[in-house]
Amino acid sequence: MTEKKTILRALAGETQDVPPIWMMRQAGRYLPEYRATRAQAGDFLSLCYNPELAAEVTLQPIRRYGFDAAILFADILLIPQALGADLWFVTGEGPRLSTITSQAEVDALKPTDAIHDRLSPIYETVKILARELPKETTLIGFAGAPWTVATYMIAGRGTPDQGPAHTFKNEDRAAFSALMERITDATIEYLAAQIEAGAEVVKIFDSWAGSLNGADFQDFALAPTAKIIAALKARHPNVPIIAFPREAGDAYQGFAKATGADCVALDNSVAPDWAAQHVQVDGCVQGNLASAHMVTGGQKLIDETGAICRAFAGGPHIFNLGHGITPDADPENVQLMIDTVRSGNWRS
Ligand code: CP3
Questions:
Q1: Cα dihedral: 78, 81, 87, 92 (round 10)
Q2: Model pTM?
Q3: What is the DSSP string of 237-281?
């Protein structure tokens, strides 16, 4: 048996008796201690840029639940801000940004090197966490994938169908591609800096990958992720990378091989038995309990958690939700999920 942390063992391709577990948005509003620290910081962005408090909220779910991994507390929209976009959050509604709809606006973004001016507090948070996390806990850094980040930069907000980004992509392909390239380059430098500060794994969140089809999926979800991974692997060959092309459907198949990702995170629209056969054959998978179970709990939570553990028991697996936990979740249901996974009672 190696000394290696459970998450790193799964990412190295090891099948374990009990899968390691962490949870997307594990530091968040469903936890009273998070709400208290956020109030102390003043608002969400001030919390992101305050290394002591951002490290504190990252540690809260580790203390409460003993997850196998901690994810850096930050946001995928800090990259647009570091590139010069205005960014603010409207309470109860979500993010707002200045919009990008022309080549001139792409050209006006700050150069890649300049991002660290704004992002250095994030690297400081990573350094604190690398010091303070329990020895067995893996530290995960992250960034948004270029397409998902671009959808917010173009529209200036979250949209149900990413309509403005599709319009820009279809009407001014050159300017759209230039924007994608600027985000891709910045993301490489941002993730490399997180690794150099102490992140042991990085994850690339492509929350809106599912709205791309065919050649567009290849060009704007798969290719940029592959480019980021190749650049990071050239500098840090031993740092595992998790890719999350959310709602990619059939395109999950082959995604790890095509991008060089060490693990593919699955959303809960994917059937675990299908994914075991078609995705896990290529290596580690992460997922994929519907986050609604964190609201409803009960026997259904236990049954679904067990079914996911059984489906993926034959290969490397990291247990997680299929998307972030929501503010209305009950902290006791999170404990029930963890207890169910770790009890091993789901084995048939
Ligand atoms: O997972 C974690 O615990 C790490 C921290 C993290 C946050 N956002 C904190 C956050 C991570 C990894 C993200 C990723 C993120 N941010 C994504 C990709 C994953 C996904 O959820 O699809 C996206 C699209 C964003 C952009 C974003 N940030 C939106 C659309 C919102 C508003 C929606 C909401 O839940 O309120 C945020 C805010 C945000 N990011 C919160 C947290 C804890 C809530 C802010 C608050 O405390 O009010």
A1: -10
A2: 0.97
A3: TTS-EEEEETT-GGGGTTHHHHHT-SEEE--TTS-HHHHHHHTGG
73 lines ligand 1 (CB under 6 A): yes
- What spacing in Å lies between the alpha carbon of 253 and ligand 1's midpoint? 26
Rounded distance between C-alpha atoms, residue 234 and residue 236, angstroms: 6
Read off the pLDDT of residues 126-167 as tens digits, 9 standing for 90 and up: 999 999 999 999 999 999 999 999 999 999 999 999 999 999
Secondary structure letter of residue 203 according to DSSP: E
Ligand 1 neighbourhood includes 76 CB (under 6 angstroms): yes
Query: Taking the CB of residue 287, how many other CB atoms lie within 10 A of it?
Result: 26
Annotated domain spans of the chain = 6-347
- 29 CB less than 6 Å from ligand 1? yes
Phi, psi of 160 (to 5 degrees): -65, -30
Q: Which CATH class is domain 6-347?
A: alpha beta
